[in-house]
């Protein structure tokens, strides 16, 4: 991968890492369920008007929207609203990768490689380390809600995988059509119209202005720009070359939250984070090809099937391990 493309991949990780700070700023103004509906409505309306629907089955489009868009952000925003630090949220959400591998093995009968199995065990050890510390030193519910959000992301990844799209950015944009109505209904029932109206009545305050800036960042930078560049890179390089850059997201998220919000992570959380990220990285390693079968000369172009597979994100297990096909990492 050329150096310019590596820098682009790193820039996406930076966009996605700062996105958790933007979410934190928006949650200071808007109720979490309504914020999810509002966020995706801002993308869904122009998508319905301007973007052709991707050529995928409706069930996988809706499943992707419910898993990645609705469940992930319902639990993530809820967890952050009741105390999950932004930096730690960016780390715990990485558990979507081992969840995706396990769901792929369970539902799609995808075979687990040895590195993937070891990676899952290491990631679980890291998650347990963070969870044990949170249970002793802080509220455990925000942590568990963020883990539930990661599981929702994994469900979305499986539906994305089954969609087998050659138009990943279109799929990401059309996925945004699914969450607004169910999340708005949930917000009206749980949070109530008064809380929603109150959040708009105080937008002229500094907190309101910062919340709108965070929302604009989430929509324009975190989702559209970040997903657009990521999809462009995934269409031009194998999944194994691009996906590891996503592991920079929690590094950026934790560092930015520490510097800008004063949210310092405890050493137990950092240790668990190292284990978690190491497990995700190990689980995303590409499996070496078998020696059997016809050999291809070094200068020969790749087969059409192989080229299509790489353009769509590698093999099923590689894409699942890396969490390919998602957008804003929060």
Automatic annotation (TrEMBL):
Region annotation (Disordered) ranges = 290-330
Q: Where does the UniProt entry say this protein principally localizes?
A: membrane
Where is it located?
Membrane
Cite the Gene3D superfamilies for this sequence. 1.10.3730.20
- What membrane topology is annotated for this entry? Multi-pass membrane protein
From start to end residue, where is composition biased (Low complexity)?
A: 296-305
Where is each EamA domain found?
7-130, 144-282
Q: Which InterPro entries match?
A: AA-Vitamin_Transporters, EamA_dom, EmrE-like
- Segments passing through the bilayer: 32-51, 58-80, 86-108, 115-133, 139-159, 171-190, 210-233, 245-264, 270-288
Listed A to Z, the keywords are: Membrane, Transmembrane, Transmembrane helix
What stretch or stretches form a coiled coil here?
Answer: none
Q: What is the lineage of its organism?
A: Bacteria, Bacillati, Actinomycetota, Actinomycetes, Micrococcales
User: Protein name, please?
Assistant: EamA family transporter
Q: Which family does it belong to?
A: Belongs to the EamA transporter family.
**Entry keyword Membrane:** yes
């Amino acid at each position: 991968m050329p150096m310019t493309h590596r820098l682009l991949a790193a820039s996406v990780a930076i966009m996605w890492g700062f996105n958790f700070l933007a979410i934190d700023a928006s949650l200071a103004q808007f109720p979490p369920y309504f914020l999810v509906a509002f966020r995706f409505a801002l993308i869904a309306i122009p998508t319905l008007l301007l973007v052709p629907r991707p050529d995928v089955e409706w069930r996988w489009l809706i499943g992707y929207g419910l898993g990645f868009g609705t469940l992930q952000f319902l639990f993530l925003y809820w967890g952050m609203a009741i105390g999950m630090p932004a930096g730690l949220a960016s780390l715990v959400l990485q558990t979507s990768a081992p969840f995706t591998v396990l769901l792929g093995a369970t539902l799609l009968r995808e075979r687990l490689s040895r590195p993937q199995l070891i990676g899952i065990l290491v990631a679980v050890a890291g998650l347990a380390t963070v969870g044990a510390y949170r249970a002793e030193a802080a509220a455990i519910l925000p942590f568990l809600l963020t883990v539930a959000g990661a599981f929702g992301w994994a469900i979305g990844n499986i539906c994305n995988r089954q969609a087998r799209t050659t138009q990943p950015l279109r799929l990401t944009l059309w996925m945004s059509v699914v969450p607004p109505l169910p999340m708005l209904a949930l917000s009206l029932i749980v949070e109530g119209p008064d809380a929603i109206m109150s959040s708009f009545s105080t937008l002229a305050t500094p907190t309101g202005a910062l919340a709108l800036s965070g929302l604009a960042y989430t929509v324009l930078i975190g989702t559209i720009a970040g997903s657009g560049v990521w999809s462009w890179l995934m269409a031009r390089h194998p999944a194994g070359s691009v996906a590891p850059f996503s592991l920079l997201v929690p590094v950026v998220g934790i560092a930015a939250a520490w510097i800008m919000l004063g949210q310092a992570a405890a050493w137990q959380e950092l240790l668990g984070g190292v284990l978690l990220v190491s497990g995700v990285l190990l689980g995303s390693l590409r499996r070496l090809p078998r020696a059997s079968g016809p050999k291809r000369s070094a200068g020969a172009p790749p087969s059409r099937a192989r080229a299509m597979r790489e353009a769509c994100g590698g093999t099923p297990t590689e894409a699942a391990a890396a969490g390919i096909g998602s957008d804003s990492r929060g």
